[in-house]
Structures are given as structure tokens and as C-alpha cells.
Amino acid sequence: MAVKDIQLPYFDLLLAQLDQGNARLELAFGRHVHWGYWPQVPQGVVSPADFAWAAENLTREVYGAAGMENGQRVLDVGCGLGGTIASLNENFSGVELIGLNIDPRQLIRAQEKVKARSGNLIHFTEGNACWLPFPGQFFEVVLAVECIFHFPQRRKFFEEASRVLKPGGRLALSDFVPRAFLLPLAALSKRWPFSKGFFGRCNLQCTIAQYRSLAKDTGFKLRVEKDITENTLPTYPFLRAMGTELNIRDPSAKFETWIVEWASRLRLLRYLVLSFEKLR
Ligand SMILES: C[S@@+](CC[C@H](N)C(=O)[O-])C[C@H]1O[C@@H](n2cnc3c(N)ncnc32)[C@H](O)[C@@H]1O
């Protein structure tokens, strides 16, 4: 896809800062671009290194839910800068790891930074989550770490994941999942006049009941549903501190983060790790 059509302003900012050599941002977001997971609430200020550790934990939560094993072929959809592929490469042997992303700029960074260990294979490829460029029954595991809300349609992605997975294979993902009664408010928030979409197009409107029915319709069964909202909350003060440090002026950056933070603190929005088994 042409870079001008991607419209993820937060990635434009991140990539520009990384190109300029911002070491603190590189430490925090140079590998994973997602929320952190803290097993216990940390005392004091979270540093970029602490955040990077927590972001790595979150990745492991997601692929742990997929029951990753040595020797598997894995597709990481919306692979960002290659952090999940890097972690799998470091922790598993005999694996073939494919990272797919719609943004060629991110893939260039991933390719430069993530090199296969002996016995593993790594490829990065450009593509859209809703039209996966792979044959049927090709993968044991499909992952989508904190990115499904950007995809054009969750249903189409589930259909595609189901097509490319072998029977018994796993689809594991993390997502912000609203309580059903939050949906009218979520729809209203789209009309907020200051929102210019720093985080691009985000659809945070798939409830757990909708996930179950999506799974049923596309040949999956929900096997793991883990609520890690509490463990992700230290992400928000860290994002605020980085926003101040970078002097981010876009009001939608603050507003959207604030909405997600408070909806999460009030448990109206839950951060879930979900894993689905392909049945047929
Ligand atoms: C929050 S980032 C997460 C990146 C990565 N999964 C990680 O955890 O570090 C969201 C990612 O989804 C990618 N993305 C957005 N829409 C996509 C689509 N339709 N197909 C494939 N990737 C997409 C973005 O380019 C970005 O890399």
C-alpha cells in the first residue's frame, strides 16, 4: 500500500523519531508497539527500559495463549517493527516465522533488525490482514498482537485466519473489548469534534459475545479468554510522560488515550488476550 494511504499518524511520528535517533523512544517502542503487561503494579516511575520489558511480557502472554511450540509455522499479522517475531525467534527452535504488515516502512525496519537464529526461518511480507497472501491450511499459529481494531473488518480477518490455519491450529490475539452497554458511547465518541485520529482508524466495538459468534461462524472455538486490563494500566502514565517529552500537540492523541484509559480503569473496556482453536 502507498504510504500516504496508510493513515496511522502515531506510526508516522514513531518512525520519524526513530530515524532521528531518539534513543529513549527506540528503547520503549523500537521492538514492540503495544501496551505493557506488569505482573504486579510497579512502584514509582516507569522508565523506557521498564516499559520495553512489560511490552515483551504482553507479547509472551499472546503467543503463550496460542500454545506455541518448537517446529511450528507462524504468521504474525500486523507485525509492527517485528518484535513478536524477534521474541519467537529467540525462544523457539525449528520455527518458520512470517510477519505481515500493511506498512512497508515498518517492514524495512523489521527486516533490518530481526535476523533468524540458526535453524529458524524468518520472512517479512507486505499485505492486508483481510486478504492474506498464503495458501489454505499453511500455518499452525496465527497471531495478531494489539492490531485487529485497525483491520478493515474483523469478520474478514477471521475468515482469512481460518482459511490459512491447519485444523487444530490456533489464532491468538489481544484486543480492547467493550462491555455491551458501552457500545452506544463508543459510537458517539466517533463524532467528537477534536478527534483527528492520532491512532488512525480504530474499531473498539467488538464485545466478547460478538467474538464468540464470529468464532462460531468462521470455524473456531474460543479456548482462552484472559482479562489483563489491570496488568496493562501502568501503560497510561508512561504514554502521558512520553507525550510530554515529545511535545505531542495533536488533541486527539490525548483525548483518545484518556478515553481508553478511563474506560479501562472503570472496566467498561477490558484488555483481553483471546485464543481460538480452528475446528475444521
Ligand atoms: C499497535 S500496532 C501493533 C504492532 C505489533 N503487532 C506489535 O505488537 O508490536 C498495529 C499494527 O497493525 C498494522 N496494521 C494496521 N492495519 C493493518 C492491516 N489492514 N493489515 C495488516 N497490518 C495492519 C499497523 O501497520 C501496525 O503495525
CATH architecture label name: 3-Layer(aba) Sandwich
User: In total, how many domains does the architecture comprise?
Assistant: 1
Note the total helix count. 11
Show unreliable segments: none
Number of strands: 7
CA(first)-CA(last) distance: 32 Å
As laid out across the biggest beta sheet, the strand order is 3-2-1-4-5-7-6
Q: From the 3D structure, determine the CATH topology.
A: Rossmann fold
CATH class: Alpha Beta
Helix content: 40-55%
Biggest pleated-sheet summary: 7 strands, mixed
Strand content: 15-25%
What is the typical, i.e. mean, pLDDT?
94
CATH superfamily: Vaccinia Virus protein VP39
What hetero molecules are bound to the protein chains? Answer: S-adenosylmethionine
Give helix and strand order, one letter per element, not per position. Answer: HHHEHEHEEHEHHEHHHE
Rg computed from alpha carbons, rounded to a whole number of angstroms: 18 Å
Pfam family, one: Methyltransf_11
Protein name: Methyltransferase type 11
Keywords: Methyltransferase, Transferase
GO biological process, one term: methylation
Summarize the SSE layout with pairings:
Layout: H1 9-19, H2 23-29, H3 48-65, E1 73-77, H4 83-91, E2 96-101, H5 104-113, E3 121-126, E4 139-144, H6 154-164, E5 165-178, H7 183-189, H8 208-217, E6 220-227, H9 229-232, H10 235-246, H11 251-265, E7 269-278
Parallel strand pairs: 1-2, 1-4, 2-3, 4-5
Antiparallel strand pairs: 5-7, 6-7
Helix pairs in contact: 2-3, 3-4, 10-11
The protein binds S-adenosylmethionine.
